[in-house]
Amino acid sequence: MINPFHYEGFALEKQFYGRDIELAKIQKLVDSSNNLLLYSKRRMGKSSLIKELMHRNADQCYTIYCDIFDIASKEEFASILLKSLAKTHRGDLKTIVSNLKKYFKRITFGITVDPNTAEISYSPRLEGLSFEEMIEEFFEGLFLLAKEKKVILAIDEFQQIALLDTKIDALLRKYMQEPHNVSYIFAGSKRHCLTSLFTYSAPLYEMATHMELGGLDSKSVLGYTSKYLSLNGGVVEYLITLCDHETKLMQHILHILYSNQKDTTITPMMIDDALEEILGDKSSSYTLLYDTFSLTQKKAFKIITSGLETIFSLDTLKAYNIQKASLASALKQLYIKEIIDKEDDKWFVPDRTLELWGKRMLNR
Q1: Is 122 left (phi over 0), alpha (psi -120 to 50) or beta?
Q2: CATH classification of 19-212, choosing from 3.40.50.2000, 3.40.50.1760, 3.30.230.10, 3.40.50.300?
Q3: How remote is the C-alpha of 114 from its chain's centroid?
Q4: 197 or 256: which carries more pLDDT confidence?
Q5: Is the pTM higher than 0.85?
Q6: Are 39 and 212 contacting, i.e. CB atoms less than 8 angstroms apart?
Q7: Which of 265, 233, 210 is nearest to 22 (CA)?
């Protein structure tokens, strides 16, 4: 039997669980062509939730998913949108080429087919077009598609546009406020940065319903895991607390337990052993990452992973032999590197596995 605890990539269909309430709320928005702003910490299952929604709507809607986490320019943003829109066209090559000519007036595509998987890749030729013209071309094609049936357009890690050009959100609003059969889903993992794009006086203000995705509740986790493992509610609560609700780490631990202990009653000690296996596998890469930090950044990282509530207290600064200004500067640099994050004036490590490695390896 395939391991039922999927932790790499998207968890879909039978491996997707625990989000019925959230799916129902989002489905109501989609049915009425309303928009959603979805935010959560990373590795909480946000992208899987979006993908599952699209899977369930695949027959009655066109679904377009764009992950813009790695974009470095507004032109890359436009290119991802155009590629994702092109992927909605299916059929043989002749049909696809014909459809692309119908939906895109100024842009042509280089099309390649993988000989092993038959997967089609699209490369838009954008020479000579301004960013505004690329976006116009995208929305003209999108609105043509929406005349056939409803479209769900999801842009994951949407906060990245705030790092590029503050005018992008204003340009998107221009097209979004036109009455078309499209539901927009904007998702991201940096709450403050993401929600700042939708606050009062921002161009996207009141353009989407806000939803924060919390952790899976213990009842849902127990209901799914008990189909495959022998464990009780107390053990599930221990797992959730240990992982700080991070879905990916929970699934990774359960994946190991299923592989090694599926016929045994699971205990907290077994969960700890599975975590130690994960930390051991990742230790080399985490050590390499840690070695890239400056001395003050290493001290700042140790302070954050130590769990101290008052990181700027005199006792903390003395214990780690660091000045307040130096600590503040180191925290800022780690934030820029996306090693740590900040919310409600509290610094934290968004990757729970990295945080636990820091706690266990650096704060002994």
Answers
A1: beta
A2: 3.40.50.300
A3: 27
A4: 256
A5: yes
A6: yes
A7: 210
84-101 per-position pLDDT tens digit: 988 887 766 777 778 788
> 328-362, pLDDT tens digit by residue?
999 999 998 889 988 878 899 999 999 999 998 87
Kindly state the average pLDDT of the residues 45-57: 92
Report yes or no: 48 and 5 within 8 Å, Cβ to Cβ: no
Residue with tokens 């009455």: 179
How many CA atoms within 13 Å lie on the side-chain side of 338?
9
Q: Tokens representing 59?
A: 């027959």
The answer to whether 32 and 120 have CB atoms below 8 angstroms apart is: no
- At residue 205, φ and ψ (nearest 5 deg) are -55, 130
DSSP-derived 3-state class of residue 302: helix
3-state class (DSSP) for residue 252: helix
* Rg (alpha carbons) of the chain, rounded to whole number: 23
333-343 as b/e: b if 16+ CB within 10 A:
ebeeeebbbee
pLDDT tens-digit readout, 138-169: 999 999 999 999 999 999 999 888 888 668 99
In angstroms, rounded to a whole number, what is the distance separating the alpha carbons of residues 69 and 342?
19
**Beta-strand relationship, 36-39 and 182-188:** parallel
| Residue pair 30/57 in contact by the 8 Å Cβ criterion | yes
Sorted by where each begins, the domain ranges of the chain are 19-212, 218-362
